[in-house]
Amino acid sequence: MPKMKTKSSCKKRFKVSANGRVIRANAGKRHGMIKRTNKFIRDARGTTTMDKADEKIVKPMMPYAR
Questions:
Q1: CATH number for the 8-59 domain, one of 3.40.50.2000, 3.40.50.720, 4.10.410.60, 1.10.8.60?
Q2: Among 10, 11, 17, 46, which one is least packed by beta carbons within 10 Å?
Q3: Mind listing the pLDDT tens digit of every residue in the chain (66 residues)?
């Protein structure tokens, strides 16, 4: 049987933690920073875990993730 392919968009955007949760970047940091508050920019730093409902959508696209 051939290898299953990981969705290219998912491998660029998501990682899976040791516990099996999907890790993603915070939204709203691509452009338009001048109109955002400093508090928003600070709070949007780093990564966060994805909601369970959204994980169910993303995980099938990443067959070799835990």
A1: 4.10.410.60
A2: 46
A3: 999 999 999 999 999 999 999 999 999 999 999 999 999 999 999 999 999 999 999 999 999 987
